[in-house]
Amino acid sequence: MTENLLTLDAGEDVEKSPADWGSAGGAALCGFANLEDRGGWLTFRVSRAGGSIPVRATREAMEDHFGAGPGDKDLAAAYLQHSESINAKVLELAPAGNVYSTANPLKLSTGDFD
After folding, report:
1. In 3D, which of 63, 28, 31, 64 has the Cα closest to residue 43?
2. If DSSP states are collapsed to H, E and C, what string results for 69-97?
3. In terms of C-beta distances under 8 Å and separation of at least 24 residues, what long-range contacts does 22-31 make, across chains too?
4. How many Å separate Cα 25 from the centre of its chain?
5. Per-residue pLDDT of the chain (114 residues; tens, 9 = 90+)
6. d(CA 78, CA 96)
7. 106: which residues sit within 8 A by CB, 6+ positions away?
8. DSSP line for 11-63
9. How many beta carbons lie within 10 A of that of residue 110, not counting itself?
């Protein structure tokens, strides 16, 4: 089982409901420092021993495998609902070490979940 992989913004101590997520379009969603819905993809970080893995998941993957809809916050909602299986796939695909960076994230596409 993976640990809690989303970080709350400073000063926050409760998980936000979908109504509190804030706007999408590239801005970090309210309450989650590492979850950004960029319209065509979702960016987030997955924690593991020694650091974290920056990830970019395509809209197609999130729609095909996790039921994300076309709305502004639908990628984030699908991620939050299915984060355990998504994070497990990231940990399965990512090699040991700091191979990925914010400029070069691990990219998840629909084929990664087939």
Report:
1. 28
2. CCCCCHHHHHHHHHHHHHHHHHHHHCCCC
3. 23/72, 24/72, 24/73, 24/75, 24/76, 25/72, 29/73, 29/76
4. 15
5. 444 344 333 333 333 333 333 334 444 455 455 788 888 999 999 988 888 999 999 999 999 999 999 988 899 999 999 999 999 999 999 988 878 999 999 999 999 998
6. 27
7. 53, 54, 55, 56, 90, 93, 94, 100
8. T--SPPPGGGS---TTSBPTTBTT-EE-SSEEEEEEEETTEEEEEEEEHHHHH
9. 15
pTM of the model: 0.72
